[in-house]
Amino acid sequence: PAAVIVAIDGPSGTGKSSTSKAVAAQLGLRYLDTGAQYRAITWWMLNNGVDVSDPERIAAQADRPVIVSGTDPQAPAISVDGADAAGPIRTQEVTSAVSAVSAVPQVRARITELQRSIAAEARGGIVVEGRDIGTTVLPDADLKVFLTASPEARAARRSGELKGKDATGLAATQQALTERDKADSSRKTSPLKKADDAVEVDTTELTLEQVVECVVTLVEKAS
Ligand code: C5P
């Protein structure tokens, strides 16, 4: 097909974002970070005084924030109600609340619809990364990849990003990651799960360049 659609899912710290951006840039495709959209809606809830421990309150407000995603793999952008959200969505506060907000069915329905329309409009094709892209958002994707890595490798990568490389920092990061993945995998609506027809790539022993090369080869075979 002319417009290839690639779904990349997996838990946090497996290199999903770096891989997806690099694959899209290399192949001239658009790129969508769906985690950023869930973070953006979470940021809005926190800013607007919504009690994020109350799913009914979240559901009641789910349609209000206006979320706009840019799809340039070199400079992915996200805004909420016209305000640049790229920085604020990466705070610890948002990271701690995002799993609870993204478990609410009304939030997922809304964001899923947005993701499908962005993918449909991406003329030259798109790489979409997240947790439920291959299973729910784009079940007809041309290629589905599920990235995994050992818990140690994932925590080490995240800590490297956070520059907190001491043993305590590493243990705390690993704990927070494990909890978020447990919440994401066990929620009722559209949990983190490998699609039956996804190709699983274990990145534990691979460099970013090797993972990118592997996925690029898979895309070329699939398109
Ligand atoms: O990818 P990232 O770690 O930024 O995602 C943040 C959170 O957004 C995840 O922990 C998960 O709760 C939610 N998410 C989701 N479905 C997606 C992408 C992200 O529920 N497709």
UniProtKB/TrEMBL annotation:
Transmembrane segments: none annotated. Signal peptide: none annotated. Pfam families: Cytidylate_kin. Residues 167-177 have a biased composition (Low complexity). CDD domains: CMPK (cd02020). It catalyses: CMP + ATP = CDP + ADP; dCMP + ATP = dCDP + ADP. Residues 154-166, 178-197 have a biased composition (Basic and acidic residues). Residues 154-200 are annotated as: Disordered. It is found in: Cytoplasm. Belongs to the cytidylate kinase family. Type 1 subfamily. This is Cytidylate kinase.
